[in-house]
Design brief:
Structural class: mainly alpha
Order of helices and strands: HHHHHHHH
Radius of gyration: 25 Å
CATH class of the domain at 41-105: Mainly Alpha
Largest sheet: none
Helix content: 55-70%
Number of helices: 8
CATH architecture of the domain at 41-105: Orthogonal Bundle
Oligomer: single chain
Number of strands: 0
CATH topology of the domain at 41-105: 434 Repressor (Amino-terminal Domain)
CATH superfamily of the domain at 41-105: lambda repressor-like DNA-binding domains
Length: 163
């Protein structure tokens, strides 16, 4: 039998082994990412924007799931970024929420930011939290602008913010 490594399985062939090892590593990395459920940062961001808007509308995961024809668990996975939201589904969600699709991708900080401004992620986290939403709702019901200003100053003093 020939000593040619491509034809003889009994002969060691480092170059072929390296090719298969390399492609195997790539395949394993993809499987680990898929199986390890490492959410893509963009999927997480889009999901957090879905959660934020859903909570702003006082809509439950079950209500959104019913409107989309999904289980609430699927909506939960979408919001966590575990499951990617497809373009068609995102279009459905934007229609239900009455926002443009671009709403889910808004991400950049305002122009001219000096670094002291809150990040979009911090604002998303605050608005996505039920206490944050309650605080915003209650604050917006205060008609007296001077009182609102004093409340904001009180909160800044409580946290030691000198702005």
């Amino acid at each position: 039998m020939s000593k040619n490594c491509s034809l003889n399985r009994n002969v060691e062939c480092p170059s072929v082994r390296m090719i298969f090892a390399h492609s195997l590593r790539e395949r394993l990395a993809k499987v680990v990412q898929r199986e390890g459920r490492i959410p893509n940062p963009i999927d997480k961001h889009v999901g957090s924007r879905v959660r934020m808007r859903r909570k702003m509308l006082a809509m439950s995961q079950e209500q959104l799931a019913d409107a989309l024809g999904l289980s609430f668990q699927q909506v939960q996975k979408n919001e966590n970024g575990t499951n990617r939201i497809g373009a068609n589904r995102l279009q459905q969600i934007s229609h239900i929420f009455q926002v443009p699709v671009e709403f889910f991708f808004e991400r950049s900080a305002p122009h001219g930011s000096d670094g002291s401004a809150l990040s979009v992620a911090q604002i998303d986290d605050f608005i996505s939290d039920s206490n944050g939403l309650r605080l915003i709702g209650a604050f917006m019901r205060i008609d007296n602008a001077a009182l609102r200003r004093r409340i904001a100053m009180l909160v800044q003093e409580l946290v030691g913010d000198d702005e």
